[in-house]
């Protein structure tokens, strides 16, 4: 799981609310973390591997959107590996982790491992949030024909730069001036929590707006492609809208418990004594959402692949396949065109107008195909409704 409480736990003088959740069934906590992250990791890799009997996804050209989807899955896989490694050490070496609670201890390795593993998990999941935001931006730019593979460099700079900057800044403010004196006041903790949850809240607020505008732009593109809005175009627009809805649904399911849990724990921190009887229901709700986070946070990777591509099946094809060399197909098509020249000479103005219309239609098809990548039915309907397929 990914929570700023894990970094706070590395402080020997941690607050009472963090102590409450971290001391609640630690063996069960670590076991559930390992189980949930392992299941998600295996299923995510299974989803991404090529399958027998399925042709590889064919795109009109390489798209930044497909690259971003893959990077989101990679961030989830690496974050899940961090969860498994940290929980395994905590579960297998309880005495090693117990040394974190020693205020003036001489062994720095327990605290170093605690901080390093927590930073690794936070950094990877935070980068996943930024990549998801970039996916929403890129989807809108693709429809507006303002994006391409060149923009992926800018996305890399923004994603990794902001993720590293916020992570390092939050950790530095939390542990300033030293690890033994952190959490002495809210001025240490609040900036750390803000830098952790800023990208999460950005996705919750900005992505639905960008997705809604992208769906509206897709509808306009489909209507303007042939001047009519047929049932095929309507279904394509609906499926793209449904895909965006599934992405946001997975995100809300996996991370809403974090926001609820953090709100409850902050409320407990402001109380003079969190063990008072009137606060029993608040403590129970905080512990319940804590366990829910353990299950849902690592499952994001697998659930996202379902939202991106649907269920791809169990039969994995690990055989190497020879890819078609682009210039071979180009040369063969050129030979075919030169061997059988057209006996009809069309007027140049008609030929030019049709060429422009075909190029515009190709660009529209490419934009829609990038957004509906992984949906076989959408790709087939798009091809059949294309003017090129109809021999226009």
From TrEMBL:
<feature type="transmembrane region" description="Helical">
    <location>
        <begin position="190"/>
        <end position="211"/>
    </location>
</feature>
<keyword id="KW-0297">G-protein coupled receptor</keyword>
<dbReference type="GO" id="GO:0072544">
    <property type="term" value="F:L-DOPA binding"/>
</dbReference>
<keyword id="KW-0458">Lysosome</keyword>
<keyword id="KW-0807">Transducer</keyword>
<feature type="transmembrane region" description="Helical">
    <location>
        <begin position="244"/>
        <end position="267"/>
    </location>
</feature>
<comment type="subunit">
    <text>Interacts with heterotrimeric G(i) proteins. Interacts with ARRB1 and ARRB2. Interacts with MLANA.</text>
</comment>
<feature type="transmembrane region" description="Helical">
    <location>
        <begin position="67"/>
        <end position="85"/>
    </location>
</feature>
<comment type="function">
    <text>Receptor for tyrosine, L-DOPA and dopamine. After binding to L-DOPA, stimulates Ca(2+) influx into the cytoplasm, increases secretion of the neurotrophic factor SERPINF1 and relocalizes beta arrestin at the plasma membrane; this ligand-dependent signaling occurs through a G(q)-mediated pathway in melanocytic cells. Its activity is mediated by G proteins which activate the phosphoinositide signaling pathway. Also plays a role as an intracellular G protein-coupled receptor involved in melanosome biogenesis, organization and transport.</text>
</comment>
<dbReference type="Pfam" id="PF02101">
    <property type="entry name" value="Ocular_alb"/>
</dbReference>
<keyword id="KW-0812">Transmembrane</keyword>
<comment type="similarity">
    <text>Belongs to the G-protein coupled receptor OA family.</text>
</comment>
<keyword id="KW-1003">Cell membrane</keyword>
<feature type="region of interest" description="Disordered">
    <location>
        <begin position="371"/>
        <end position="392"/>
    </location>
</feature>
<keyword id="KW-0325">Glycoprotein</keyword>
<keyword id="KW-1133">Transmembrane helix</keyword>
<feature type="transmembrane region" description="Helical">
    <location>
        <begin position="287"/>
        <end position="311"/>
    </location>
</feature>
<keyword id="KW-0675">Receptor</keyword>
<dbReference type="GO" id="GO:0005765">
    <property type="term" value="C:lysosomal membrane"/>
</dbReference>
<dbReference type="GO" id="GO:0050848">
    <property type="term" value="P:regulation of calcium-mediated signaling"/>
</dbReference>
<dbReference type="GO" id="GO:0032438">
    <property type="term" value="P:melanosome organization"/>
</dbReference>
<dbReference type="GO" id="GO:0033162">
    <property type="term" value="C:melanosome membrane"/>
</dbReference>
<keyword id="KW-0472">Membrane</keyword>
<dbReference type="InterPro" id="IPR001414">
    <property type="entry name" value="GPR143"/>
</dbReference>
<feature type="transmembrane region" description="Helical">
    <location>
        <begin position="153"/>
        <end position="178"/>
    </location>
</feature>
<dbReference type="GO" id="GO:0035643">
    <property type="term" value="F:L-DOPA receptor activity"/>
</dbReference>
<dbReference type="GO" id="GO:0035240">
    <property type="term" value="F:dopamine binding"/>
</dbReference>
<protein>
    <recommendedName>
        <fullName>G-protein coupled receptor 143</fullName>
    </recommendedName>
</protein>
<feature type="transmembrane region" description="Helical">
    <location>
        <begin position="119"/>
        <end position="141"/>
    </location>
</feature>
<dbReference type="GO" id="GO:0016324">
    <property type="term" value="C:apical plasma membrane"/>
</dbReference>
<feature type="transmembrane region" description="Helical">
    <location>
        <begin position="28"/>
        <end position="46"/>
    </location>
</feature>
<dbReference type="GO" id="GO:0072545">
    <property type="term" value="F:L-tyrosine binding"/>
</dbReference>
